[in-house]
Design a protein that fits this description.
The complex is a heterotetramer of chains A (340), B (448), C (251) and D (400). Chain B has 448 residues and is of the alpha/beta class. Chain B has helices spanning 9-21, 58-75, 113-125, 138-151, 181-196, 210-226, 244-247, 264-276, 298-304, 324-337, 343-362, 367-374, 424-427, and strands at 27-29, 44-51, 101-108, 131-134, 154-157, 174-176, 201-207, 229-236, 257-261, 283-284, 287-288, 290-295, 312-315, 377-379, 387-389, 396-397, 400-405, 416-422. Chain B starts with 8 loop residues before the first helix and ends in a 21-residue tail after the last helix. In chain D, helix 5 packs across helix 6, helix 8 runs antiparallel to helix 11 and helix 9 crosses helix 11. The chains are: A mainly alpha (340), B alpha/beta (448), C alpha/beta (251), D mainly alpha (400). At the B-D interface, helix 1, strand 1, helix 2, strand 3 and helix 3 of B face helix 3, strand 4 and strand 5 of D.
Chain lengths: 340, 448, 251, 400
């Protein structure tokens, strides 16, 4: 029983990353009709925002310490970070420790800006082009972004720890009267994603901006005829989608050390999630994200693997095939979106 | 049609010379007179450095490339000579190999068998490379080794840890300096016994491909010989990035040791996840829960950050070794690049030197002569103590290091500390050991 | 006995009764118009005839054979061609190719792996397509990109494509919807010509009374999913029930 | 000629001349010159050009004609490779049975996957094919290792039970692939002055098969069947209401293109008897999509150009390193040399991905029809310069 609860929890936690990426991808599909293969790269850039903030905070000056030797036998240069020297070791240390949450503040404007630049500079010229062209250009962009990051940060994963206070485990099982220990940061990630998803939905549901965008998703021409500048709103939506992907990336860094190809690793999966959810359906994307996360968690259980060896390798794809064959447009897809 | 295999650059060049010597361009057809593939007839010899430059192991590849360039510099008489000065063989003069200047070409394996073979082929066919070396994964090493065997050039493997490289997939033209899964197990077992006792329950998480399987087999066999019980062996998909769903069940399995048969990004993530789930603070069966990473890489350990602290594993070489050879290598590498070399850099540097030395001793670039010179060759001074290149399987037998993640690193390179240097005798196995059975070395191929 | 016999056809969408109990008989070589106000179930009925929808109850017989459960392409191969409200043509292909496709479909059936011969070498099909273009007065446009034609030309092409299959029943779904007066008149003339020159039965769904009364031999009025009345055009014109249900509000 | 009209015949002849003379054309620089780095005329790369050309031609029959974007075509290539290697292991080193088997097996595999995937269209179809291919890859890499040899890839060993042939040659090596005794790896070399040209038996086999494949693709494009496929892309609704069953058309196109992929896979294994699982990964499927779009989807020659373009970058640009750069610019003053090398450095060697990514973007932004459109523009520009008043070429014909 505990094992099952644990895997459900784990599935929700895995699913939150899928859901966040798929949500942004769907916003772009739904509003702009663009197949964005660079969306994974946005997730990756978000993660590297966290890496950068951490590095900036740890920027240090060097003092030569004659008493210690470095690996070549020369006197060791001891590094002290500026933050620590400004705020004192305690406060400074705490600031560095909280680098990831602090990075959120920086990541939001940066990601929105990147989104704007991408949309205005490149994507907008591809609205009327074939999906094949969109795939080629965004894929090219993804490679470029990835290689730029690799050029500056290398190919190896870079550890970016969560704040000390949030890095232990918590007994989630206490709620059910048992003992289930789960990493605090993963729980934080889950709630974070719930908040973001909720925020996006209420934004679309309750603001006039959101209503216009939703109308635009349903029928772009008519809304355009009403004299509403839908293009500008779509640009903003692209920025928001980029920010969602970026924030998902920032918060993901303590879970797994980021590297330059983490975006590509998530890309295929998030496309599967979006399609299983149904093209253009935001609730579908979120639902599919969590569902696939949970199924993946269950498939990796030993009890399941002993019956079906290798099932964890293919579970996502098996589920995708079954759903697409039984429900033609995914879980909650609309008719006619991306079908030709 | 001449019945030749692959291009013979040397012949081409002489042909080209003949052509330019005449007023009118003449057509020269290569004869099958060449003794072996890419016989270097000019004043230089070309080596092919085939390393991952894109993909997850690109940093390791870059470090290998640095070491190769350093080795070439030393062979050609540049720099401070590095380990050439400490190497037990004194044949190399610093004037290239057999008096020919050493040149090199580089390629990208992309950590894919196909791409690695394409790249190696282009070095052989286009650039006239007489030896191919490099790689940072076993699949690639085995694939390229097979190619070199067919092409009639020597392959000096880079970082490859699978038993199969010198086991069931061994080839006469291929040589491995790096250690392997069996050796990791043999070196780790006594240390683990001292640290954690003989009554332990181990849980294996294993990357689901051949390298992972051979390591899992090796480690499980070595620890079971100590009296440990293997609770579960779980295979994880190569593409997995989040191992949480594999880690979570460990808690309730009754295991008190987790063995992570992962490498590279997989290792970083699985270790990070394991620490995240608080495994290290657990007490199971009245004992502290422990994690073991049998194959350590400093470059990758960096990616796991503080999570490696106190975790044991094995490694081929580490820059903090105090022997003369290691120090000489670290000095020349560190001076040139500003940071210490990785084990990948070390092994490929050694391989280059060993190849050059073998050619020098054989007095020929002919692969069969080189094979003969390397087989059962004993040497010292390359940082791993006395080493034997065993003739039966072309595997080096040398000391293996057991290392531990350092608790208080003084710099970003100072992540591991050497706990024990397991002597070569302890990790040596008979050539017909069942874990290495199934293949045949075959006979050397010179491409003639 | 008509060529098309619709008996007791009913169709529900969830709680909505789209078709109640439709009976319809289309006589061979006549033009039969189906009219009715919006939401009367005209399109639903048409979709039931061509295999796009399967009615919940009743039967649809074409020339003595049931069409129910057959796919659209099978029904087409039986001899029913359909013209859409907005012209459905192959926009990316040339006009000639548009005409060739139904000609091949007529000759080779629903599927043929005819991958080795080249189109120009298929003289018989080519001649037939050219002749049909000639008949449609479109021969000069044969190399045009079909999508770049005017709506009237597209309609003409679509009708030509249907005719080239020599169907026994031609179904027209509001063929003049959204057309300018001149284009509408051209279309009426074209249909009249077809009616006179060919052995063909035409069923037409139409909103435009001008079109209906210029063409139809027989009219069925549909209201709220059931046929209100079926009669000759003159009688329909004078029928007070029809006036009340339909003409009163639109004429 | 060959049942083609003049234009197509001309194109076929051009392709024939280009492929048969490739050893000359691809080696324009003398062997010892600094520019020799850009020579691509060595057997392995030439083989890759034509093999991926075949792959892309086949893919284009599906994607270019019907518009169905398969994201799992690499699976057929992989299956073809595995079949061929198994044939070498079990039957004979002759490439003919291996290639035949690879075409048949991948055709059957395509029939199965196509039958299921073609129940959906658009992106749903793409994701279904992607899912099948990724499943194949993941299983080949792990659970199916006994059949595929997993990570390393399936390769020949010294103890293969070869029914028609020997397990190992007299001198203890693995026998090599051959066409009735003509070894695929045998290379005839010719030195003309400072140039060296290599004529490889395997390459010429691949080149002849490419020509046959290209010819067949022209015939398909120009046939009634090809026209039907374009009609499927244009308007499926109209197809259905014209008495045409679209499903067998798309399925036939899918199977044909799957067989092309299998043929490419079989050839790849015949040139180099190893079948790696990465051949089936989604990135490999993506690569053929990129090749086709980059060259010009729906055109005859485009996919071949796209394949050549990408493979050239992969194999030539990745091999340029700083050392080579310094060699090129050594004529410059030191400071300038270092500066130039510094500027170029990110784009070569390990940066070849970056260059490729930038080129993808440039091509798609400025040449919406791919490289073929680029060629057409140049041709038009040249023509325009010849007779400036000739501007009557407005009639839009389908791109070649």
């Amino acid at each position: 029983m505990d094992a099952i609860l644990l895997q459900i929890l784990n599935g929700l936690d895995k699913g939150s990353a899928y859901a966040l990426i798929a949500l942004g991808l769907t916003l772009i599909f739904g509003t702009l009709g663009v197949v964005n293969f660079a969306h994974g790269a946005l997730f990756m850039i978000g993660a590297f925002c966290a890496v950068t903030v951490q590095r900036l905070l740890s920027l240090s000056y060097e003092v030569v310490d004659e008493t210690q030797k470095d690996f070549l036998g020369n006197p060791l240069k001891v590094k002290t970070s500026y933050v620590e020297s400004w705020f004192g070791p305690e406060m400074g240390g705490a600031i560095i420790d909280w680098a990831v949450p602090i990075a959120i503040i920086f990541a939001i404007p940066i990601m929105i800006l990147i989104g704007f630049v991408m949309e205005r500079g490149l994507i907008k010229h591809f609205y009327k082009r074939e999906h094949a062209d969109q795939i080629l250009v965004t894929f090219g962009l993804a490679i470029v972004l990835q290689e730029v990051i690799k050029y500056f940060y290398g190919a190896n994963p870079i550890q970016t720890a969560s704040p000390e206070a949030l890095s232990g485990v918590a007994n989630v099982g206490a709620l059910f009267g048992t003992e289930i220990f789960y990493p605090v940061w993963r729980i934080v990630y889950f709630f974070f994603s719930v908040v973001i998803i909720g925020g996006i939905f209420s934004f679309l549901q309750f603001t006039t901006f959101g209503m216009v965008v939703r109308a635009g998703m349903a029928d772009r021409e008519t809304v355009g005829l009403l004299g509403i500048n839908i293009d500008r709103r779509f640009t903003i939506m692209f920025g928001i989608a980029a920010a969602v992907a970026g924030l998902a990336g920032v918060m993901y860094t303590p879970i797994n050390s980021p590297n330059y190809h983490m975006g590509m690793d998530f890309l295929v999966l998030s496309f599967v999630v979006v399609v299983v959810g149904g093209m253009g359906s935001l609730p579908g994307a979120v639902l599919a994200g969590f569902m696939l996360g949970i199924l993946e968690a269950f498939a990796s259980m030993n009890e399941v693997k002993s019956i079906l060896p290798g099932i964890d390798q293919i579970i996502i794809y098996v589920v995708a095939i079954i759903i697409l064959l039984t429900r033609p447009r995914g879980l909650m897809g609309r008719k006619g979106v991306m079908e030709e | 049609m001449s019945k030749s295999a692959f291009s013979r650059r040397g012949v081409l060049k002489s042909g080209a010379l003949a052509g330019t010597g005449l007023a009118l361009p003449t057509i020269f057809t290569a004869s099958s007179a060449a003794a072996f593939t890419n016989d270097p007839t000019g004043s230089s010899v070309t080596l092919g450095f085939n390393v991952p430059q894109t993909g997850p192991y690109a940093d390791e590849g870059a470090d290998e490339l640095r070491a190769y360039q350093l080795a070439v510099e030393h062979l050609n008489g540049g720099g401070d000579g590095g380990m050439m000065n400490t190497f037990s063989s004194k044949e190399l003069q610093g004037n290239g190999i057999l008096g020919k200047e050493v040149k090199f070409v580089t390629g990208d394996t992309q950590t894919k068998s196909d791409a690695a073979r394409a790249s190696a082929k282009s070095m052989i066919e286009k650039d006239g490379a007489v030896m191919i070396t490099g790689g940072s994964s076993s699949g690639v090493a085995i694939a390229v080794q097979g190619l070199c065997q067919e092409a009639g050039v020597i392959f000096m493997a880079g970082l490859t840890h699978s038993n199969d490289t010198t086991g069931k997939d061994k080839k006469a033209n291929g040589f491995r300096h790096f250690f392997n899964g069996y050796m990791s197990g043999a070196a780790l077992a006594p240390v683990l016994k001292n640290l954690y006792g003989t009554d332990r329950n181990a849980y294996h998480l294993t990357a689901d491909y051949t390298w992972g399987w051979t390591q899992e087999e090796s480690i499980a066999a070595a620890t079971e010989a100590l009296g440990w019980n293997t609770v579960e062996k779980v295979r994880t998909p190569l593409a997995a990035t989040d191992f949480s769903s594999y880690i979570a069940p460990v808690l309730n399995s009754g295991a008190d040791v987790l063995v992570l048969n992962h490498y590279g990004g997989n290792m970083v993530n699985s270790l990070t996840n394991a620490v995240q789930f608080g495994l290290r603070e657990k007490v199971v069966n009245g004992k502290n829960f422990e994690i073991v990473v049998p194959l350590y890489s400093r470059l990758m350990a960096k990616g796991a950050g503080a999570n490696v602290k106190g975790i044991h594993g094995s490694t081929n070489w580490h820059w903090s070794l105090q022997d003369e050879g290691s120090q000489a290598f670290v000095r020349s590498f560190g001076t040139k690049y500003g940071f210490p070399p990785s084990q990948a850099a070390h092994t490929v540097y050694c391989q280059t030197l060993l190849y050059a030395d073998a050619v020098q001793r054989a007095g020929s670039f002919n692969p069969c002569a080189v094979v003969e010179a390397l087989e059962d060759y004993e040497f010292d001074g390359l940082g791993n103590g006395k080493t034997l290149y065993r003739g039966e399987d072309h595997q080096c037998f040398k000391d293996v290091l057991v290392v531990r993640g350092k608790e208080n690193p003084t710099s970003e390179f100072d992540l591991l500390e050497v706990v024990e240097v397991t002597p070569a005798a302890q990790v040596t196995y008979p050539a017909d050991h069942p874990m290495f059975a199934g293949g045949a070395l075959g006979s050397c191929n010179s491409g003639a | 006995m008509g060529i098309l016999e619709v008996k007791n056809v009913g169709k529900r969408f969830g709680g909505l009764q789209a078709l109640g109990d439709v009976n319809l008989s289309v006589k061979e070589n006549t033009v039969h118009a189906i009219i009715g106000p919006n939401g009367a179930g005209k399109s639903t009925l048409l979709n039931c005839l061509v295999g796009k929808l399967i009615p919940d109850t009743g039967s649809v017989m074409f020339d003595g054979q049931s069409v129910l459960g057959r796919k659209p392409f099978e029904i087409n191969q039986m001899g029913i061609s359909r013209v859409f409200q907005t012209p459905e043509i192959f926009g990316d292909l040339s006009v000639l190719e548009n005409m060739l496709i139904p000609c091949f479909a007529k000759r080779d059936g629903a599927f043929s792996l005819n991958a080795i011969t080249s189109v120009p070498s298929e003289k018989d099909v080519l001649e037939k397509a050219e002749a049909m273009l000639e008949e449609m007065n479109m021969a000069d446009k044969r190399h045009m990109h079909a999508a770049s034609m005017s709506r009237g030309d597209k309609r003409r092409l679509e009708i030509g494509m249907c005719l080239s299959q020599e169907p026994r029943l031609l179904l027209l779904d509001e063929p003049t919807a959204g057309m300018a007066r001149a284009d509408t008149n051209n279309t009426i003339d074209l249909l009249k010509e077809i009616k006179e020159q060919r052995d063909i039965t035409i069923a037409i769904i139409e909103h435009d009374m001008h079109v209906v009364f210029s063409l139809a031999d027989r009219i069925t009025v549909l209201a709220q999913g059931t046929p209100l009345v079926e009669d000759d055009p003159q009688n329909i014109r004078g029928n007070p029930k029809v006036r009340e249900a339909y003409l009163g509000e639109s004429a | 000629m060959f049942g083609l009209d003049n234009k197509d015949t001309r194109m076929l002849l051009v392709v024939a001349v280009l492929t048969l003379c490739a050893p000359f054309i691809l080696n324009p620089f003398p062997t010892d010159s600094a520019m020799a780095q850009f020579n691509a005329g060595y057997p392995d790369l030439m083989q890759r050009f034509v093999i991926f050309g075949i792959f892309a031609i086949g893919f284009n029959i599906l994607f270019g004609l019907t518009g169905y974007l398969s994201f799992g075509h690499a699976a057929f290539l992989g299956v073809g490779s595995y079949s061929a290697v198994w044939m070498f292991k079990l039957l004979s080193m002759n490439v003919v049975p291996a290639i035949l088997l690879s075409v048949v097996i991948s055709g059957l595999f395509a029939l199965l996957i196509g039958f299921v995937s073609l129940r959906r269209s658009g992106i749903y179809f793409s994701i279904l094919t992607l899912a099948f291919a990724q499943m194949s890859f993941n299983l080949a890499y792990s659970v199916l290792t006994p059949i595929t040899n997993g990570e390393t890839g399936l390769q020949l060993t010294l103890d293969d039970p070869r029914i028609l042939g020997v397990s190992a040659t007299a001198d203890g090596s693995i026998p090599v692939t051959s066409l009735f005794g003509l070894e695929m790896r045998s290379t005839f070399e010719m030195a003309v002055g400072p140039w060296a040209f290599q004529f490889n038996a395997g390459y010429y086999l691949c080149a002849l098969i490419l020509l046959a494949a290209f010819y067949l693709s022209i015939r398909i494009f120009r046939s009634p069947f090809g026209m039907m496929l374009r009609a499927v892309k244009s308007n499926q609704q109209r197809m259905n209401y014209t008495g045409l069953n679209t499903k067998p058309y798309t399925l036939a196109a899918f199977v044909i293109s799957g067989m092309y992929a299998g043929l490419a896979g079989g050839l790849m294994a015949s040139m180099d008897p190893l079948a790696g699982a990465e051949r089936m990964q989604w990135t490999a499927s993506g690569e053929v999509v990129l090749m086709t779009i980059l060259g010009g989807a729906g055109t005859l020659i485009g996919p071949v150009l796209g394949a050549g373009f990408i493979k050239y970058f992969e194999n030539i640009f990745s091999k340029i390193n700083d050392h080579v750069l310094h060699g090129w610019f050594s004529f410059m003053p030191d400071g300038l040399e270092d500066f130039v090398v510094f500027i170029i450095h990110p784009f070569i060697g390990k940066g070849w991905h970056l260059t490729l990514g930038i080129l993808f973007m440039l091509v798609v932004v400025f040449l919406p029809g791919g490289l073929v459109e680029g060629g057409q523009r140049i041709a038009k520009w040249v023509k325009g310069r010849k007779n400036k008043d000739d501007s009557t070429s407005a009639t839009k014909t389908p791109a070649e």
